[in-house]
Design goal:
Elements: H1 17-49, H2 65-73, H3 76-89, H4 91-106, H5 119-122, H6 125-136, E1 139-140, E2 146-147, H7 149-161, H8 170-184
Antiparallel strand pairs: 1-2
Helix pairs in contact: 1-4, 1-6, 6-7
């Protein structure tokens, strides 16, 4: 979704680079709060997956169903977990997390702007890229058949990845360097 990288594609023929960037910003503006809200949901899910209680270890404490229920009732970890989950799901905490992510993504701006915030790194790029490819690129296979959808997006990505390493985004160059170093070991 890099606004300096995408215009390097030979398939970008329906839009000029400036129009591509304008459309990217419009699409990002339409989706940013949706993505932030979904990021919060994902974080809450991850917090709930944490191992927070150990199994009981002494079968002698469970001779009957009533004793087993008593053991569960007196388990301090269950009460602590209920309080922790209630705190995590308290709306004030959810809203605070939303505001923190909003600040991280937008850096004080009302909507996405190039060079401001981390929205380009943090937003889900696939849905936006799909729309951009559909609206601004004419993607043809080797037989000159026009491709759309996932096929078109894949071909644009493949074509861009064939550019010289120096023309690739910095994060891709760093990943390439890291992988190359590991391979050479």
């Amino acid at each position: 979704m890099d606004p300096e990288y995408l215009p390097q594609s030979i398939f970008l023929t329906k839009c000029k680079p400036a129009e591509l960037i304008k459309r990217l910003l419009k699409l990002a503006s339409e989706r940013i709060f949706f993505d932030i809200a979904n990021q919060i949901i994902a974080r809450l899910r991850e917090m709930q997956k944490a191992k927070w209680i150990e199994d009981f270890t002494n079968p002698a404490n469970f001779p009957t169903a009533a004793k087993a229920v008593d053991q569960l009732k007196s388990c301090a970890d269950l009460g602590k977990r209920a309080a922790a989950v209630a705190g995590q799901l308290e709306f004030a905490n959810v809203e605070q997390t939303f505001r923190e992510l909003e600040a991280e993504y937008l850096d004080g701006a009302a909507k996405p702007q190039l060079g401001k915030g981390r929205w380009l790194d943090k937003m889900r790029g696939k849905p936006i890229l799909s729309v951009l490819v559909n609206e601004c690129f004419v993607v043809k296979d080797t037989d000159e058949n026009v491709l759309t959808g996932a096929e078109a997006v894949s071909l644009v990505a493949e074509e861009l990845l064939q550019l010289d390493l120096a023309k690739q985004p910095i994060d891709f160059q760093e990943l390439h360097k890291l992988i190359s170093a590991r391979i050479q070991k």
